[in-house]
């Protein structure tokens, strides 16, 4: 990485992704909405000075503020624009030549107490070429005039943003006879003169006129679509206006997906404390490792000269080994978190916008499916949804979701609807897995709850601290955490009904069904009562966990989107385990789940249901309407897949070890992608190797998967230390954790106060 200012990259370099999407070099460009543009430019005065090309840019710029504006102004005259609601003034001043008149206007802003514009956009040359028939004398005069104007622009640049727009190339074949003298050779000569004079002027000055040269690159790709060979097509000038908006507004509005021109955020108090903690952990681990190495050398077994017997080395105490493991975990985690911070908070690595094409999504999908099938092995057990099968299911779903995110496929509605089913399937497994455990084991102890909560939340809590993000930002973890607690509360509350008790009396089955009906009623009520839902989660301390941007609407939306699927998973587990207990299904190796006739009918219905849902999802026209139906119908495709995967005996007896491996670290993959595979909190793509998109994806993916695997190992190791089986020790650890979160809340309050 060569370093440098991302603003300079935004103004000078980039490339097209497809036909209309401009990608600046090394950073991401935000697409400003009208409301955002108004908020940025409130009480601001913007001036465009130049010829008809600058007038084009002026109109595209004001359309970002008010899209209803029509290009009806005087062609060769000044055009004012004002948005009174936000006190924004944007003026176009007709000065088609760099001459004494333009100099006088610019000079007027530098004298006395005259109000200076906040943004000044200047550019002109084609009229000088046209009027003087492309003569060399005109170029010489242009150099003299721009030399006299440059110091004035530098003076204005001290308090205002000043941009000099270089001249775009022309499409010479389409130029009218009166413009034939405007050649690309002449335009290049004028541009070179402007750049040389402005750069030499700013060399000894702190203030600098910014050269807007990116328009030239855009025009080179699009000028052939021009109506007259001189003026840019509308899409190109709109891109220029959006670049201008990003240059000025990104440092004010700080959009997540607009990394260009954004300064590196300062370290928060909590981040500084985390940095000190990880540093001390690394130092502590190194010291203990050195001490242990020295002790090992001293106590190394050697032969006693008198007796001829071998002396045994001293055995280290368990406390020391536990401390060493703890420090080792935090040492590795500290190094990994440093990488996270450098990737997505420091302006060290490049970031790029996503751009969706069908091939960028479907080709990798086909590739990983072929790989998955290649690694087919026999399962250890042949039960429905056995461990290997559920790991496989999580694995391939996670890989598809990752490809969906990096390819930007959310813009394609049929893909979006199918991905929503995959997210729902994760939650279905949450309901199925936790219900099965509590129903069969009857273990409602604190240890089990703490183990699950720790494994689910450890990485997210660390990322909230290191990356300065709210808990709700990583929405999936809060979702599965809350649903786990709901499942636990449903089954643990009196009367506790488990399989062992229900086997003695069938009435307990009806009691459990009654509990499930009560749960369904509560879900139904909360999904249609946003006020009640928001009141529950607006109470402190829940509000600290579930608020995003000052409210819990995002949390309500996420919860509501898959509100029934966990219940469906619990109900499926109950029915399946009841059938299994009564030996109504056959789970032998190679045996169909039911009789041949029933199995064939179920298989046919499942395939038809699966395809019917896909056809419906592919015909979706409106995301809002489809999201409304999704909670009720997503279970159709999930159940269809389960039956297709489990009814035939052979299919149930094999699994893909490739997908299962990824399934074991699926949670870590889902969370880590936010910052070290994607960028700008999933809005863009991390670029470690600029200029080679495919190689970059290979490198960043390899690091990303290795990091996710390592974090999974660290979480498992720490879970054994932090959540012990001994109740008295566990209680002490819980008190320590409560103290930790109290301290975190205290420092967070201090942090918020200092920000305000």
TrEMBL record:
<protein>
    <recommendedName>
        <fullName>N-acetylneuraminate (7)9-O-acetyltransferase</fullName>
        <ecNumber>2.3.1.45</ecNumber>
    </recommendedName>
</protein>
<keyword id="KW-0808">Transferase</keyword>
<dbReference type="GO" id="GO:0000139">
    <property type="term" value="C:Golgi membrane"/>
</dbReference>
<feature type="transmembrane region" description="Helical">
    <location>
        <begin position="452"/>
        <end position="468"/>
    </location>
</feature>
<feature type="transmembrane region" description="Helical">
    <location>
        <begin position="561"/>
        <end position="579"/>
    </location>
</feature>
<feature type="transmembrane region" description="Helical">
    <location>
        <begin position="396"/>
        <end position="417"/>
    </location>
</feature>
<keyword id="KW-0472">Membrane</keyword>
<dbReference type="GO" id="GO:0047186">
    <property type="term" value="F:N-acetylneuraminate 9-O-acetyltransferase activity"/>
</dbReference>
<dbReference type="InterPro" id="IPR012419">
    <property type="entry name" value="Cas1_AcylTrans_dom"/>
</dbReference>
<keyword id="KW-1133">Transmembrane helix</keyword>
<keyword id="KW-0333">Golgi apparatus</keyword>
<comment type="similarity">
    <text>Belongs to the PC-esterase family. CASD1 subfamily.</text>
</comment>
<dbReference type="Pfam" id="PF24536">
    <property type="entry name" value="NXPE4_C"/>
</dbReference>
<feature type="transmembrane region" description="Helical">
    <location>
        <begin position="506"/>
        <end position="526"/>
    </location>
</feature>
<feature type="domain" description="Cas1p 10 TM acyl transferase">
    <location>
        <begin position="253"/>
        <end position="734"/>
    </location>
</feature>
<dbReference type="InterPro" id="IPR057106">
    <property type="entry name" value="NXPE4_C"/>
</dbReference>
<feature type="transmembrane region" description="Helical">
    <location>
        <begin position="474"/>
        <end position="494"/>
    </location>
</feature>
<keyword id="KW-0812">Transmembrane</keyword>
<dbReference type="Pfam" id="PF07779">
    <property type="entry name" value="Cas1_AcylT"/>
</dbReference>
<keyword id="KW-0012">Acyltransferase</keyword>
<feature type="domain" description="NXPE C-terminal">
    <location>
        <begin position="22"/>
        <end position="72"/>
    </location>
</feature>
<feature type="transmembrane region" description="Helical">
    <location>
        <begin position="685"/>
        <end position="709"/>
    </location>
</feature>
<feature type="transmembrane region" description="Helical">
    <location>
        <begin position="355"/>
        <end position="375"/>
    </location>
</feature>
<feature type="transmembrane region" description="Helical">
    <location>
        <begin position="659"/>
        <end position="679"/>
    </location>
</feature>
<keyword id="KW-0325">Glycoprotein</keyword>
<feature type="transmembrane region" description="Helical">
    <location>
        <begin position="600"/>
        <end position="617"/>
    </location>
</feature>
<feature type="transmembrane region" description="Helical">
    <location>
        <begin position="629"/>
        <end position="647"/>
    </location>
</feature>
<feature type="transmembrane region" description="Helical">
    <location>
        <begin position="269"/>
        <end position="291"/>
    </location>
</feature>
<dbReference type="GO" id="GO:0005975">
    <property type="term" value="P:carbohydrate metabolic process"/>
</dbReference>
């Amino acid at each position: 990485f060569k370093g440098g200012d991302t603003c300079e990259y935004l103004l000078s370099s980039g490339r097209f992704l497809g036909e209309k999407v401009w990608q600046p070099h090394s950073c991401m460009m935000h697409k400003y909405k009208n409301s955002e543009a108004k908020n940025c430019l409130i009480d601001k005065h913007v001036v465009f000075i130049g010829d008809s090309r600058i007038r084009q840019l002026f109109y595209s710029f004001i359309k970002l503020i008010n899209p209803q504006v029509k290009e009806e102004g005087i062609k060769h005259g000044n055009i004012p624009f004002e948005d009174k609601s936000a006190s924004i003034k944007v003026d176009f001043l007709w000065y088609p030549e760099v001459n004494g008149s333009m100099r006088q206007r610019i000079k007027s802003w530098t004298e006395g107490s005259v109000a200076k514009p906040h943004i000044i956009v200047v550019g002109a040359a084609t009229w000088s070429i046209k009027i003087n028939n492309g003569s060399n004398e005109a170029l010489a005069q242009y150099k003299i005039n721009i030399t006299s104007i440059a110091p004035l622009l530098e003076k204005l640049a001290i308090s205002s943003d000043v941009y000099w727009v270089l001249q775009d190339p022309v499409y010479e074949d389409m130029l009218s006879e009166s413009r034939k003298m405007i050649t690309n050779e002449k335009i290049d000569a004028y541009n070179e003169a402007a750049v040389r004079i402005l750069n030499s002027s700013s060399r000894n000055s702190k203030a600098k006129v910014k050269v807007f040269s990116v328009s030239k690159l855009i025009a080179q790709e699009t000028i052939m679509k021009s109506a007259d060979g001189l003026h840019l097509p509308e899409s190109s000038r709109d891109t220029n206006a959006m670049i201008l908006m990003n240059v000025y507004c990104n440092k004010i509005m700080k959009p997540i997906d607009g990394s260009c021109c954004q300064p590196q955020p300062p370290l928060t108090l909590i981040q500084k404390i985390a940095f000190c903690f990880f540093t001390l952990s690394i130092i502590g681990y190194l010291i203990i490792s050195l001490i242990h190495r020295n002790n090992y050398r001293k106590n190394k077994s050697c032969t006693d000269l008198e007796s001829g017997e071998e002396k045994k080395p001293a055995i280290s105490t368990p406390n020391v080994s536990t401390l060493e493991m703890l420090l080792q975990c935090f040492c590795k985690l500290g190094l990994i978190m440093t990488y996270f911070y450098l990737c997505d908070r420091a302006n060290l690595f490049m970031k790029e916008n996503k751009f969706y094409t069908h091939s960028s999504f479907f080709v990798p999908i086909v590739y990983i499916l072929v790989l998955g099938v290649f690694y087919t092995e026999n399962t250890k057990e042949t039960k429905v949804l056995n461990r290997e099968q559920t790991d496989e299911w999580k694995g391939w779903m996670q890989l598809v979701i990752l490809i969906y995110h990096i390819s930007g496929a959310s813009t394609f509605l049929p893909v979006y609807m199918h991905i929503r089913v995959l997210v729902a399937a994760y939650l279905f497994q949450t309901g199925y897995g936790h219900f099965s455990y509590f129903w069969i084991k009857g273990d409602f102890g604190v240890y089990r709850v703490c183990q699950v909560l720790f494994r689910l939340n450890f990485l997210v809590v660390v990322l909230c601290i290191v990356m300065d993000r709210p808990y709700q930002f990583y929405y999936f973890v809060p979702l599965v955490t809350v649903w786990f607690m709901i499942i636990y509360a449903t089954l643990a509350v009196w009367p506790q009904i488990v399989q062992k008790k229900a086997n003695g009396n069938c009435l307990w089955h009806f009691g459990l069904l009654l509990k499930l009906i009560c749960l369904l009623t509560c879900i139904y009520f909360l999904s249609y009562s946003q006020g009640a839902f928001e009141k529950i989660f607006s109470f402190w301390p829940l509000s600290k966990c579930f608020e995003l941007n000052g409210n819990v609407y995002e949390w309500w939306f996420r919860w509501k989107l898959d509100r029934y699927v966990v219940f469906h998973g619990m109900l499926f587990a109950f029915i399946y385990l009841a059938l299994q207990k009564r030996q109504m299904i056959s789970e032998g190796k190679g045996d169909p789940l039911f009789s041949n006739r029933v199995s064939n009918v179920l298989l046919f219905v499942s395939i038809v249901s699966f395809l019917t849902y896909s056809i419906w999802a592919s015909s979706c026209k409106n995301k809002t309407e489809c999201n409304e139906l999704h909670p009720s119908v997503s279970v159709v495709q999930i159940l269809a897949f389960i039956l297709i995967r489990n009814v035939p005996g052979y299919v149930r007896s094999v699994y893909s070890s490739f997908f299962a491996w990824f399934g074991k670290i699926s949670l870590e993959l889902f969370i880590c992608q936010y910052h070290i595979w994607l960028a700008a909190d999933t809005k863009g793509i991390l670029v470690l190797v600029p200029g080679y998109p495919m190689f970059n994806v290979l490198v960043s993916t390899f690091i990303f998967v290795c990091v996710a695997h390592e974090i999974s190992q660290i979480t498992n190791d720490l879970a054994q230390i932090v959540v012990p089986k001994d109740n008295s020790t566990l209680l002490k650890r819980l008190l320590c954790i409560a103290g930790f979160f109290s301290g975190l809340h205290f420092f967070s309050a201090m942090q918020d106060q200092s920000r305000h």
